[in-house]
Amino acid sequence: MNTQVLEYLIAISEEHSLTRAAERFYLSQPSLSHHLANVERELGAKLFRKEGRALWPTEEGVIFINKARAILHAEAQARQQIEALRVQTRPRLRLCMDTAEEAWFRQKVQPHLERLQVRIECTRLPAGQALTALEQGCLLYTSDAADDRISVD
């Protein structure tokens, strides 16, 4: 069983229908029914009961669906934490600039650096604060918008 199957079963419980749940994932109803049967066989328990045309979770189904949601939530949190760690380990470029320079930088330069996986931290620089910014580890720059080059001060 994989997390995609958990998503399928959650959709069945939300839609109360194999057909509508299958449509969410662009699956055929027989394919989704097959996934459900495999999980029920693996668990040795019926997860849904039919009432008219609607499917409702059994007591075992409620337990399973709640745990499936918790698993998917934990997976999403793990992915976010891993991405945050990956972002922290990317090369970092700290820049200080005034508002006009920041707009130019974000439009002309930042997209290229992001493709190179460079993490960018921009700080707006008040007039006359160049020395303080350098002491804090910021790279100061000005742009020549006429030829779109960066010169480092």
In short:
The chain is of the alpha/beta class and 153 residues long. Helix content is 58%, strand content 20%.
Give a verbal description of the structure:
With 153 residues, the protein is α/β, with parallel strands linked by helices. Helices cover 58% and strands 20% of the residues. The strands form 2 sheets. The chain has a 4-stranded mixed sheet with strand order 4-3-5-6, with helices on both faces. Strands 1-2 form a two-stranded antiparallel ribbon. The relative contact order is 0.10.
What secondary-structure arrangement, pairings included, does this model have?
Layout: H1 3-15, H2 18-24, H3 29-43, E1 48-51, E2 54-57, H4 59-89, E3 92-97, H5 99-108, H6 110-115, E4 119-124, H7 130-135, E5 139-144, E6 149-152
Instruction: Tell me how many strands there are.
Output: 6
Tell the overall outline. elongated
Helix content: 55-70%
The largest sheet is: 4 strands, mixed
What is the count of DSSP helices, taking H or I runs of 4+ residues?
7
Radius of gyration over all CA atoms, rounded: 27 Å
Structural class: alpha/beta
- How confident overall, as mean pLDDT? 82
Q: Termini distance? A: 58 Å
- The strand order across the widest sheet is 4-3-5-6
Binned strand content = 15-25%
Instruction: Note poorly predicted spans.
Output: 141-153
Order of helices and strands: HHHEEHEHHEHEE
